[in-house]
Write a structure and sequence with these properties.
- The chain is an alpha+beta fold.
- The protein has two domains: 167 residues, no CATH class; 144 residues, no CATH class.
- The protein contains four helices and 17 strands.
- Strands 9, 10, 11, 12, 13, 14, 15, 16 and 17 form a nine-stranded antiparallel beta sheet that branches. Strands 1-6-5-3-4-2 form a six-stranded antiparallel beta sheet, with helices on one face. A two-stranded antiparallel sheet has the order 7-8.
- The longest helix has 19 residues.
- The radius of gyration is 21 Å and the shape is elongated.
- The two termini are 33 Å apart.
- The relative contact order is 0.16.
């Protein structure tokens, strides 16, 4: 699946304790996920030129000065690989677990890279290291190429550092997670024709801000299933919504298996007629990350993951039928 920022996260920064032109996160934050709050993060990610020439030879020194007690990641567009822009402010992730290990990963990144970079270097985020004396060092991230930079100190293969943050952050949050207290996600009331066949508006929920090699960063805590039926006006209205915590394991296994069969969106854009029934499954994990799967159940059956399509899944249909009943 998808690592947020990890597909070549480029990183630039200010030296400690020099200030950056964009406001750094507040030092008062506690560990854990902070939903977007105005002023917590700069309004936009850093922008950099693309290509290998965009990163000069490194100056001496560490890209991440040792001794930090917290690392605050301002993460922006959660799905850059889909070439979409999700509206709204960035999200702020606060790490207090094994910050020293994260710093080691940053400083061990290579100072040069033989792999050419042809991507634009814009986008990304900010990683601010906070120290006991209240000074900070900010590393700027770009998702175009694997650059890492703090002032004139530069490194390559920054995706490795982003993944190291995500692994530690996930472990930190899972250690204190209470899956039974995670509230379920809710479905929209209506779906309408989207930009292409087998695509419907609003877009599927993709509220995942932590990198993962699976469908979600953590095991699902609760699922929500909804059934939409086409009306005479050509839209699909929600006729049923069910939440459940007992089938999370079966739902996760079915979704993971189906996602591995995804073939992209092109094979599923040509359909002779609109479906009558569209079932939706919203999975929310123990961290509160949420992702949506849609399944058309009659005409041109297909399972859609964000913008990718996969063949119909017997296992996924069984979960949906268990929760919603068989389609009429």
């Amino acid at each position: 699946m998808v690592l947020v920022l990890a597909g070549g996260a480029a990183v630039f920064a200010t030296s400690r304790p020099a200030s950056h032109s964009a406001a750094a996160p507040e030092a008062s934050a506690t560990a854990g996920p902070d939903r977007p709050v105005t002023g917590d993060c700069p309004s936009a990610p850093p922008l950099f030129e693309g290509g290998n020439w965009a990163l000069p030879s490194t100056a001496p020194g560490d890209v991440a000065p040792p001794g930090a007690v917290r690392a605050v990641l301002c993460r922006y567009n959660p799905v850059p690989e889909l070439n979409t822009v999700r509206p709204g402010p960035p999200r702020r992730l606060v790490l207090t677990r094994d910050v020293a290990g994260l710093i080691t990963v940053l400083n061990d990144l290579p100072t040069s890279d033989i792999d050419p970079c042809f991507s634009a270097g814009d986008g990304g985020g900010y990683l601010t290291l906070e120290y006991g004396d209240r000074t900070r060092a900010t590393v700027e991230l770009s998702n175009g190429c694997g650059f890492v930079r703090r002032g004139a100190v530069t490194r390559y293969q920054g995706g490795t550092a982003v993944e190291a943050f995500d692994v530690r952050y996930t472990a930190q949050e899972l250690a204190v997670a209470r899956p039974a207290d995670v509230p379920p996600a809710g479905c929209v009331q209506r779906l309408t024709i989207g930009p292409a066949k087998a695509r419907y508006d609003p877009q599927p929920v993709f509220d995942v801000w932590v990198g993962t090699h699976g469908f979600l960063p953590a095991p699902p805590a609760v699922v929500t299933a909804c059934r939409f039926v086409r009306g005479s006006d050509g839209t699909w209205d929600r006729i049923r919504e069910v939440t459940d915590r007992a089938v999370t394991g079966d739902a996760a296994a079915a979704v993971e298996a189906a996602s591995k069969q995804a073939l992209g969106e092109v094979p599923y854009l040509q359909c002779s007629a609109d479906p009558k029934t569209i079932d939706v499954l919203l999975l929310r994990d123990a961290l509160g990350e949420t992702r949506e799967v849609r399944a058309t159940r009659d005409t041109c059956p297909v399972v859609t993951f964000d913008f990718d399509g996969a063949p119909p899944s017997t296992a996924l249909d069984a979960v949906l039928d268990h929760l919603l009943g068989r389609p009429a």
